[in-house]
Amino acid sequence: MRFLLYNIRYAAGIGKQFHLPVPYSGYLKNTNGNLKKIVDFIKPFYPDIIGLIEVDAGSFRSGKSNQAKAIARELKHFHVYQSKYSNRSVAQKVPVLNKQGNAILTNREIVSQKFHYFHNGMKRLVIELELENFSIFLVHLSIKFRHRQYQLQDLHALLKNVNKPVIVAGDFNVLWGDRELQLFLAATDLRNANSNGQPSHPSRAPRRQLDYIFHSPEIRVTRFQIPRVKFSDHTPLVCDFEVPDLRLNGQHSVKPRLAESTTTRQAGGLRFRP
Questions:
Q1: Which of 9, 25, 260, 265 sits at a 20 to 30 Å CA gap from 205?
Q2: Domain ranges in the chain?
Q3: Which pTM does this prediction carry?
């Protein structure tokens, strides 16, 4: 099975044009041309699951089109999208911001999905997607160190309730390095698919890890790669893996060693087939 993780930066692109006529003005430009390049890049990998960070769900810059839905349609995948900001967030009242979110695409049958929101930070969304033999958690952590630590505590609490092997992936924004993640990984017993510590950011000259794919010990990674493409400020992560059949091996239980407890708000949602 193949999982592709990609922070696509709303398909806004990179380079000098992104900062013209003023810095970061690329966030307000039409993105459809770059989105096509991203789709053409993803297709030959034939991923079974795609985790997309920074997706535009239909602002003027994407031509009122949901980018996750557009990519899913091209790949003939299901897609699950949710705004990265909770309903109570001020961002929900701001044009463009209220169309920003994350998404998971898959060609596998979806058993269930849940949307959780961290207690702290601006970007609070956690997408939980349950498949037959494992569950996926997709996150985009805060740019502030203190908020990231609180969010990792919340994420740890969520994982305690999962009875299947898990993949936890996303943009963790660990600007101080992967030492920020040591307690979280020790508590959850998750492993880093990027065992060699290959950098993924910035795409023009990668020098640090911000994007991660973590997995339960029962999941076996057979190949990991970071294609050097520059459609976003992040590079994509591609992970091939094998998951035990729970019908043959019995249920797995994630048992973190920390006792932190957190109540996380959940929201219902819909999944769509293109």
A1: 25
A2: 2-263
A3: 0.88
What pairs with residue 91 in β-bridges? none
Indicate left, alpha or beta for 84 from its phi (over 0: left) and psi (-120 to 50: alpha).
alpha
From CA 93, how far away is CA 270, in angstroms rounded? 22
How do residues 147-205 score in pLDDT, each as one tens digit?
A: 999 999 999 999 998 999 999 999 999 999 999 999 999 999 999 999 999 999 999 99
Q: Give the pair of three-digit tokens for residue 10.
A: 């709303």
| Cα 245 from Cα 61, distance rounded (Å) | 43
CATH class for the domain made up of 2-263 = alpha beta
Q: Which residues touch 84 (CB under 8 Å, ≥6 apart)?
A: 100, 101, 102, 123, 124, 125, 140
112: helix, coil or strand? strand
Q: Do residues 239 and 3 touch, judged by C-beta distance below 8 A?
A: yes
Secondary-structure breakdown of the chain: helix, strand, coil percentages, each rounded to the nearest 5: 25, 30, 45
Residue 95 in tokens: 């044009």
